[in-house]
Amino acid sequence: MNQEIIEVIDSEQDETSQNWCNLSEAGSLKEGYDLERFVEPPRKDFICLICLGVVRNPLECSQCGILLCKKCAYGCSKPQNPFFSMSSITIKFNCPICRSRAAPREPSMILKKFISNLIVYCKNKDRGCKVCRSIGEIKNHEKECDFKVIRCANHGLCSKEGSKIDFITAKCIKSEKNADRKLKFVCSEICRKVVVMSYLLKADKSEEAVDQYKLALEQLSQIN
């Protein structure tokens, strides 16, 4: 009974320090980086003991100093007010190693920068990409990676998916000077003409759209 009283008092004393979590972001967080993505084996200190990946959005136990992904820190924590609405729940950290209930803290900037500078392969490596970048830079590359999986821009008639490098571009020009040009990726010449035709119709260029339509029909007849 005395132990329970002490725990309640401790909970009240450090309630203000439990501001490390935000329940609204919990669904968007990810577990650690897969170890196979690293060019060189990372230090064991950087491996989250929950998901066994290299820590992503790391938090540090203020007592024993272990690192955990923020998502994993949420997972090993407990709500203090389970009978109230989610908006009133306070998350209480529970370290998986030392069982400390003290709120975790942000690691030092030097440590976070060190982890951010670790070199990883592009997530599209298995599809043929050979690019390696730091954790902090790889996301920008992956957004434009030639080997990322995309779907043909002719969504209404085509559902083909594949590596970006295997697709061709359809140029939808928005101005006479080509200053504002949006590229769309399609799987074939026919889909290219359909996408361009759709754009021309939206831009009130019906005659040019009809020309594209005729060309698409001609190609279809040749295939048949």
Automatic annotation (TrEMBL):
The entry's protein name is RING-type domain-containing protein
Alphabetized UniProt keyword annotations: Metal-binding, Zinc, Zinc-finger
Q: Name one GO molecular function term.
A: zinc ion binding
Question: Among its keywords, does the record have Membrane?
Answer: no
Q: Does the keyword Metal-binding apply?
A: yes
Tell me the domain of life: Eukaryota
Per the record, the GO terms for biological process are: regulation of canonical NF-kappaB signal transduction
Q: Point out the signal peptide segment.
A: none
Boundaries of every RING-type domain copy: 48-99
